[in-house]
Amino acid sequence: MTKVRLGIIGFGTQGGAYAGFIQEGRVKNMEIGALCDTDPAKRAVANEKYPNIPFYENYIDMLDSGDVDAVVTCVPHYLHPEMGIESLKRDVHALVEKPAGVYTKQVKELNEFAETKPELTFGIMFNQRTNELYQKVKKIIDNGDIGGIRRTNWIITTWWRPQGYYDQSAWRATWEGEGGGVLVNQAPHQLDLLQWICGVPKKVYSNVKYGYQRDIAVEDEVTTMLDYGNGATGVFVTCTHDVLGTDRFEILGDKGKIVVDDSKKVTIKRLKQPESELSDKMSMQDMAKLSAGGNMGEIYDEEVIEFESVWGAQHTAVMENFAGNILDDEPLLAPGSDGIHGVALANAIHLSSWLGKEVELPVDEDLYLAELNKKIAEEKQMDN
Amino acid sequence: MTKVRLGIIGFGTQGGAYAGFIQEGRVKNMEIGALCDTDPAKRAVANEKYPNIPFYENYIDMLDSGDVDAVVTCVPHYLHPEMGIESLKRDVHALVEKPAGVYTKQVKELNEFAETKPELTFGIMFNQRTNELYQKVKKIIDNGDIGGIRRTNWIITTWWRPQGYYDQSAWRATWEGEGGGVLVNQAPHQLDLLQWICGVPKKVYSNVKYGYQRDIAVEDEVTTMLDYGNGATGVFVTCTHDVLGTDRFEILGDKGKIVVDDSKKVTIKRLKQPESELSDKMSMQDMAKLSAGGNMGEIYDEEVIEFESVWGAQHTAVMENFAGNILDDEPLLAPGSDGIHGVALANAIHLSSWLGKEVELPVDEDLYLAELNKKIAEEKQMDN
Fold first, then answer.
1. For chain B: N or C, fewer Cβ within 10 A?
2. pLDDT per residue over A227-274, tens digit each?
3. GFO/IDH/MocA-like oxidoreductase domain: which residues (chains A, B) (predicted)?
4. Nearest CA in chain B to A208
5. In this predicted complex, what is the ipTM?
């Protein structure tokens, strides 16, 4: 095998984009093996654009066809785990879309099944992990450049979604159809990056607004406090109603600070000695003198890096890395089993708001599912 | 009377600075009436610098002397309310330092007493209210330029305090001596400004770290979530251990956004129509086109204002305004009775962390005082 034949499950916006990337040759080690969508109307569109590519209405048929070596799941979140399992069961490599699922219980089943198939590649579309900017930030943290983390603060509100977006399908922004709003749909990348870079929080307390600025059942605004259990704290804010979106991520460490603006610019301040040592040997007057004299450079170095980013480049990078793992054992940037962390954090944020109290991670998965099912039941009752 | 004769109670760093401002003629309608400090050693310093100014060791003697028309209280926080009351009782105008007190119960007594003396001027040293930048921000909010507030977010960590600062006196950073740390000592201005500009929150939930990065009993780090009771939310973060301090205040409204950086630069984005109308009539594709074409100017105007600020100018402005109110009924920028809001918020933040749950404002003042007294008792026990 020189190229991985990818089966794309779900030929909507995302699936269509992936097909386009491959067709344009942007994923060097992949070709389109087959397309699949439960909507028969998509067949005509697929045949016109990709006349020589087989089209299936049932993904199981596609898995059994021998047309594909691997699949990607561009379908509603709830379906990701079962599709991942069915694929792996048939020795077809699986790249699941984010989020890995809606609740950890189902994601755990996927992970456990994947463990029984170590010879297969199981990845997740955490395309932001291939973003050089976040790789750089992770490296700085992992290197200990800014020391142990004291505080994280991410305001990420750059995904404005108008009412029309929510109205486009009946399942959008419902508990039954998506299992949440901004947390499961827009923010999973940041929920992943935050933990990938800064570690998994131990406790969260949240204030989540359901249908605050949009006529939807699920959340369009989230404010969360994180407790890392070692003294470090964090704040995570996201929403879909800020048309003047902010994306600002600050990490304070024992030996410096990183600020990421607009996922484009990284400002790194590295202290020449740990803050605790400065505290022990400098007076406020010493510091005021440094500051007034414009000599703060005596205590830290500043590095500013600007990154260019092209939409899609990160998706194709994940696809290429996924195929590279299948073909040449290239290390996976986003192992599928990592998908559970973001789901666990999203579940904890929901649960904290439902219970009105701080919750520990991992949350009780049966309790979460019971509460989620209550939301689904309430939603159905309101529809009737 | 053409100039107000000010009695300065407490001839330490702050009291000494105020004396200097007046002596240098920076407060045009004030003169130094008398100086006062319980430390007899300060008399020599005072006599040398201000040879013709009377010095008292007991502030009651100063109040009774006829040497002063007004006083300012540059003494530990706990003493502000009683000194305010004793002054007003003797028909001496009172400018209390921030915070107005340590707990609302004592501040309420001061406010209630001041109400019985409406002919006297009762002010508080909220010098940041005279900062043109915050006046501008308040005006924009009050004018409705950015519509109703949806979210506030202030990270204010620009007051680094080394261990030596805390070690300079036995009462510093103790429950008995100061009644708190960063909340009562460094952050009162922001706790005031936040409410002055954005309104009083209805509920708070906090994660407060006591002696986190410094060897102190009180708090050196605070993370708080605010709930304004009308859907609007907020986050307030402060600490004294960030030598690379951040000062970033963001306010999101229905019709725009304000970001204040470093208390120097204000960026105002005013939407040409409310966000809810954009949500109703624009699609994601419309917005993506505007954004990709660099045409976001079609939906908002941006204004950036840079301010210069000189340390001390804001203190002298409060003093001048206070004297102006005494002499010419000039409207008070910072009425003393406003001091209770910041104390109430600080109390709520402490109490939420002590009880481990969200608390409503105003907090039960007896409960707060009982909990504070427990901290004082614990502290004493540890000293023994």
1. C
2. 999 999 999 999 999 999 999 999 999 999 999 999 999 999 999 999
3. 134-258
4. B233
5. 0.93
